[in-house]
Design brief:
Number of strands: 12
Distance between the termini: 63 Å
Order of helices and strands: EEEHEEEHHEEHHHHHHHHHHHEHEHEEH
Number of domains: 3
Number of helices: 17
Strand content: 5-15%
Protein name: K7_Cbp2p
Structural class: alpha+beta
Organism: Saccharomyces cerevisiae (strain Kyokai no. 7 / NBRC 101557) (Baker's yeast)
Shape: globular
Length: 524
Amino acid sequence: MFDHPLSLYEKLFSEMDEDFKPSFEWQQLIRVRCKDDKLKLQRVIWPKSIFSNFCRGIGVKKNTYDRLLEQNNGEVPMFVNPANAKPLPLFQVSDEAMIGEFDGIGIFPYFVDKHREFFVTEVDKLKTKIASPLCTLNERKRIEKANAGRILANEEGKPFYLDANSATTRIADGNVVTLKQLLERSVSHKTLWSKQSNKDRTCPGDILRATILSNDFSIRQLRAEFCKNFILYNIFTILQRNKKSIRSFSGNDNAPFFPFSWNVWDSYIWKQYQETESMKIPTDQASLINYKTKYDSFLHDLQTYSALVISEMKWNQFSIFQNDETTLSRFEHITLILQTVLTKSKMIRIFQPNLYKFMQDDLRPTLMELVGFTESINATIEPGFANEQSLQSANGLKKLANQLLYFEQKIYGEKFRVNRPIQLRPITLSANYKIVILDKKNAIPEIFQTLLKFMTQITTYFVKDLSEVELHGHMHCIDKKMLDKSKFMYLYEEKSNEEVKAASPQKEKIVDNIIGLLSNDEEH
C-alpha cells in the first residue's frame, strides 16, 4: 500500500499493470510556443502529462486566432508540442466557453469526440482514431517545465482553474509519487503537529488524507492542509473556551422554543453550509477532488465567519452572553450555527474524520438537540433571510473582511518555517500602519464599520471622499485594493523622509495607477 502510486499516471506506463488505463482528465495549464519562439500562448488547457503525445493541435478563440494571424503576416502559425517537439496546427474554436478565460486548449480528438470536427479529410479523420504511445518519463518532465498552473474538470466535464493566484509549477517541491515518499518527506515538518516528547511524531492521518485528495502530492500542499486543519481546530476552540456560557438542559426539562435572530454574516455562512450539505457525495476520484476544492472554499468562508464572530465578541463582550428564560444569548445563537457545522457537516466528516470525531465527542450536544435547531431551522428563518439584497450585503462584508485580514497578514505574517520557532512581530508595530477604506457612496452600514474596526489591531478609517485620505499624507501607501467601483482599501505605512522606498515592479505600478484613476473618478 505504501509503495503504490498515489497518482497512477505519475509512473511509466510500462511499470503499470497491463490492464491499467489512465483516465483522461483536464488537469493543468501549460505554455506552448512556435518553433522560432516569436509567438507564445501562456495558459493552454492540457490533460494529464502522460497523454501529451495524443495532442493534434491547439484550439483558440476567434479574437486570439485573428491576433496570431496578424502577428504572423497573415499565415496560420504552427505551434510545438512541449513533450515531443512535434508541430501542432492552430484551430479556431466555435464554442468559446470550452476555453473560458484561458488562451487556448489542446486538441485531443482520440479522447474528445467534439475535437474530431476540426479534421475534415478522410485521412485526417482516420488519424484521429490512432492511439499514440503514452509519454515517457523524459517527455512528462518536459511538460512539467512548461506547466503554468493547475486545473480540474467541473461536473459537466469542462475545465476550470483551481488556483488563479499561482500560475507556477506545482512540482516545486519535487515529485512525490508514493505514500511512503510523502510520509518520509513529512518528517521535516513534524514540529508542526508534535512535541519532542511525543513518541509518535507521524504526520496526522487527516493531513495526509486531505493532501492526497487535493490531487497535489507535494510538501507545499501538506503544509497547506496542516494550516486548514489548524484553522478548523481554532474555530472549534471558540466554542470549547466558552462552554460555561452555554446553558444545559436535562432530558426531563421542557425546553422552550427560542426565536432565532439572524445577522447577515450568520445568514451567509448558513446558506453556504446548506449548499455544501446538499451536494451529493462523490463516487469517483475526479468528483472527489472537485468536492475537496469546494470544501476548501467553504472552509475559507467559515474562517472569515469565525473572524467576524470574534470581532463581535470583542465589540459586545458583556451583552453577547446575556440570556433569559425566553431568549437565547447572542453567543448561544453563534454556538448553534458553529456547533451544527462542526458536528454535522458531511464534508468535514469526509476530509478530516479524526478532528470531526474529536469535536463531536467534546462539544456538548444538549442545547442543540433540545432546541431542535437543525430540524426547526426553516421555521425560525425570517422572509428576508436569503433575499438577494441580504446576500449581496453579506458578500460585500466578506470581501471587506478578507482584504482586512490580508493587510494584517502582510504586516504580521511570518514566512513558513519549521527549523525554529516562529517569532511573531510585536503588536506595537500596528502604530506604524493605518488602513483607509474609501466608500464613495457611503454604502457600508455603520454596524459593518464597527465590526471591521474590532477585527484588526491596526487603526482603520472609513472615509467618503478621497481628499480625506490625503489627511494621512505623511504616510506612504504600500498596498491598495479595489473592491468594486465605489469601494477602495489602502494600507499606509509611516516612513521618515530619509527612507527611500524601493520602486515597485512595473506591473504593480500599472495596477496601482488604474486603481488610483478609478478611485479619483467623480462619477457616483
